[in-house]
Every structure is written in C-alpha cells, then in structure tokens.
C-alpha cells in the first residue's frame, strides 16, 4: 500500500459517506439567526430571497435534527406524487 493511501477502518466501507458528513459550523446569534456558509449555499443552489421549509426531526420527543427543503423542490415533489392521483379524481 502506498503512503498516500489510507486503509479503511474496520467496519467502514471504502466509499466515503456524504450523508452525514460535517461540512461546517454555524453560530446562532442573540436574535436566533444563523448564516449558512457560502459553500453550502452555492452547493445547494440557495440564493437570496429563496424560501426554505424548516422540518424538525424528533427522537424521544426532542428535536435532534433540522432539515431545510427548498419550497420549489417541495412543491415539485408534491405535484409529482399528487398529480396522478388528482388527475384520476378530477
């Protein structure tokens, strides 16, 4: 094995997971506001004025995770799911 190659840890796969990788750290100010880092906004295609749904995830009745979903992505998903059903009803 070459020096630049690293050996995977026992129990891990050779593919790097991108699902739950810590990308950056944000701080909540005294008004409850936080700034998404530019790299994250750029990668997600989030622009000034975009609207995002905030979806809290609960575990044992406590919020453990927060998901942000672009409203246009959400409405497209709803149309994709409900469109065929409503077409049959209407």
From TrEMBL:
Residues 23-71 form the SpoVT-AbrB domain. Keywords: DNA-binding. Coiled coil: none annotated. Signal peptide: none annotated. GO terms for molecular function: DNA binding. It holds the Pfam family MazE_antitoxin. The keyword Oxidoreductase does not apply. InterPro entries: SpoVT-AbrB_dom, SpoVT-AbrB_sf. This is SpoVT-AbrB domain-containing protein. It comes from candidate division WOR_3 bacterium SM23_42.
